[in-house]
Amino acid sequence: MELIAGIKQGDIGEEFEVLSSDEGSAKDIPEWINKVGHELLDSFESDGVWHIIIRKAK
Amino acid sequence: MKILVVGGGMGGTILANNLARRLNSELENGTAQITMLSASEKHMYQPGLLYVAFGRMAPDELYRDQQSLLEPGINFHVDPVETFKLEENHVVTQSGKRHDYDIIAIATGSRSMPEDIPGLAENSINVYTEKAALEFHKSLCEFQGGKVVVSVGVPHKCPMIPLEVTFMMHDFFQEQGILEKVQLHYTYPIGRLHSLEPVGKWAKKEFDRLGITYETLFNMKEVDGDKKVLHSEEGTEVAYDLLVAIPPHKGMEVIDTNGLGKSGWIPTDRHRLNIEGHENAFVLGDTTNLPISKAGSTAHFEAEALADNIASMVKIGRSVRDYDGKVFCFIEAGKETATYAMFSYNNPPDPKPATKSIHWFKMAYNQMYWASARGLL
């Protein structure tokens, strides 16, 4: 939800990194990014925290 | 020590009253002063709007005179701040008056922004202002049947409202005897029914039991009022006969125009509640940029932590505790049952089956709120 809010107020080309302890985020966020048409730059897990990096594309 | 509280809503009022009580002797001997600057002489109990929307509270029950809620030692002025000079420790108000401070707490709140989504304001109903809540009730009373779509914007105020509105409409239509002619449909922006996963799981069971349909990963893009169709950012659409919006909201314009935070949300330390880079400037309630519920309960618990810290800064020169993210939200699950979600940064909620007793506790709290605002509860 915070990512959606952040993207709404961000500029095109701006990058966002989500840190989440919820494994579901690693699945849900790329699915949403794909649907809406933003760009998934990276997704990885480190010490139990998922890092999902996105670029606002439109 | 001059303490300035900007905003006379739930957060600012509970903070100022708690501070006045803790600093009673300092206020009496003149070593501390508390001033509140607000945009209104009235104080509104915003959670009551939900009940106005369902005809269960009258609008005038939501208001008290702000001055009547404040401890006698607090200097209260209806004179909103227009300019914040955090580097120089002063603000300038609408009337042009300058207020210097040693410590400032900003609690200016947020505003509903249905106009941010094309077509939404003119084609939907919501419960976020007195006028909107009255229109909501009129629309429900006139509704004869069809598809009611509840659609949730991002970010929105009070995360339980989308569920409460949906459950309460279910029971409202049942009481009106038209439930079999109504299809309730709920859309949510992320891949589940609520941002708090345990609440989402609880809601899914309830929706399935009550026959309420839902669609997730649905972010409102625009409303075609002629065709009565709501389009999503994800490329889907849903037709409606009655559109109930949980509109996006923003912080106040004065925050944005003073460069304190994008969209009116001020970057805030999640534990100390100070503005990043400013040790004597604090934020609470909807005004923070914290990714937690924008709800009265949040403002309440933040105000209590902040009152302890500011009072101890005056008395011993340092703060004494962190805000732990504590929130307690009632969740109305229909006309006469409710549950609750209590959580913090490190402890997720665990909503229990709804009961009548929790609903009646919420109804009692609607009256007890005025004791909370005074810093007594």
Walk me through what this model shows.
The complex is a heterodimer of chains A (58) and B (377). By secondary structure, chain A is an alpha+beta fold. Chain A has one domain (2-55): TusA-like domain (Translation Initiation Factor IF3, 2-Layer Sandwich). In chain A, 38% of the residues lie in helices and 36% in strands. Chain A contains 2 helices and 3 strands; from the N terminus they run H-E-H-E-E. Chain A has helices spanning 2-9, 23-36; strands at residues 15-20, 39-46, 49-55. The longest helix of chain A has 14 residues, at 23-36. Chain A is globular, with a radius of gyration of 11 Å. Chain B has 377 residues and is of the alpha/beta class. Chain B folds into 2 domains: 2-109 and 252-326, FAD/NAD(P)-binding domain (3-Layer(bba) Sandwich), CATH 3.50.50; 114-249, FAD/NAD(P)-binding domain, CATH 3.50.50.60. Helix content of chain B is 32%, strand content 24%. Chain B is built from 11 helices and 21 strands. Chain B has helices at residues 10-22, 24-29, 49-53, 66-69, 120-123, 130-142, 161-176, 197-210, 253-257, 296-316, 356-373, and strands at 2-6, 33-38, 42-44, 63-65, 74-78, 81-85, 90-93, 98-100, 103-106, 110-112, 146-152, 182-187, 213-215, 220-224, 229-232, 237-239, 242-246, 249-251, 281-283, 327-332, 338-343. In chain B, the strands form 7 sheets. Chain B has a 5-stranded parallel β-sheet with strand order 5-2-1-9-19, covered by helices on one side. A 4-stranded parallel β-sheet of chain B has the order 13-12-11-17, with helices on one face. Chain B has a 3-stranded antiparallel β-sheet with strand order 6-7-8, with no helix packed on it. The A-B interface holds A 1-2, 4-5, 8-9, 22, 24, 27-28, 31-32, 35-36 and B 154-155, 189-192, 195, 197, 217, 219, 233-235, 248, 262-263, 291.
